[in-house]
Design brief:
With 244 residues, the chain is α/β, with parallel strands linked by helices. Helix content is 31%, strand content 18%. It has 3 domains: 1-32 and 81-121 and 167-244, TPP-binding domain (Rossmann fold), CATH 3.40.50; 33-75, no CATH class; 124-160, SIR2/SIRT2 'Small Domain' (2-Layer Sandwich).
Length: 244
């Protein structure tokens, strides 16, 4: 691993056009469960499977149950950024990292100081009225009971992408543009199995694709550099120097 980190450091030091694409593994070290890990949300027991309860159909048909589950299992508002979040923010501030593209909905990248964050699956920190469009902070969910409602009477919906819903095409297109132009693409904390997000790797045209993950992925063969281990631990070893 020492050699891999040394190479990664050299690549980072030579570039001012790095893009990071991350998944649930980036936030597990902040205490937020990974949906597909052994101890994750998918391996706990509920009346319905999590993918059912987090679907648009379930939200529409059983909103009370949806919000009970959502409040209990999707909101980790006390979580704080870990070393990976912090280092990525530092790389951006140093003029080396152009954007963070994330599948996470916890807002920890922004909390760490990152500014250009593309949230493919939305954010639990934003909520809106499905009738009038008015936006609400997360307190509209946490400080209410049952189904939260807007002053106009409409349901307040979390601004997160549920199963059966498509990704925001503007955000997706912007992510593609960043990846296409990137000198270095660092992918971390994701199994690269959830589409269409996982398909973003195919838009990278450079020769420095870095995969950082605790476990092997089905895309490892595409990587120019593989670093296996905790992304927080690995990123903490990277030194941040000013841009070229």
């Amino acid at each position: 691993m020492v050699d891999s980190i040394k190479i990664l450091q050299e690549w980072i030091d030579s570039s001012d056009n790095i893009v990071f694409f991350g998944g649930a593994g980036v936030s597990t070290e902040s205490g937020i469960p990974d949906f597909r890990s052994v101890d994750g949300l998918y391996h706990q027991e509920y009346d319905y499977p999590p993918e059912t309860m987090l679907s648009r159909t379930f939200y529409e048909r059983k909103p009370e149950e949806f919000y009970r589950f959502y409040r209990n299992k999707m909101l980790y508002l006390d979580a704080v950024p870990n070393e990976a979040h912090k280092k990525l923010a530092q790389l951006e501030q140093a003029g080396r990292l152009r954007a963070v593209i994330t599948q996470n909905i916890d807002g920890l990248h922004q909390k760490a100081g990152s500014r250009e964050v593309l949230e493919l699956h939305g954010s639990v920190l934003r909520n809106y009225c499905s009738r009038c469009g008015r936006f609400y902070p997360v307190e509209a969910i946490t400080e209410s009971r049952g189904v939260p409602h807007c002053e106009c009477g409409g349901k307040i919906k979390p601004d997160v992408v549920l199963y059966e819903e498509g990704l925001d095409q503007k955000i997706l297109s912007k992510a593609v543009r960043y990846i296409e132009k990137a000198d270095i693409l660092i992918i971390g904390g994701t199994s690269l199995v959830v589409y269409p997000a996982a398909g973003l790797i195919d838009y990278y045209r450079g020769g420095k694709l870095v995969l950082i993950n605790k476990a092997p992925t089905g895309m490892d063969y595409k990587a120019d550099l593989l670093v296996q281990g905790s992304i927080g631990e690995i990123m903490s070893q990277i030194q941040v120097h000013g841009g070229r």
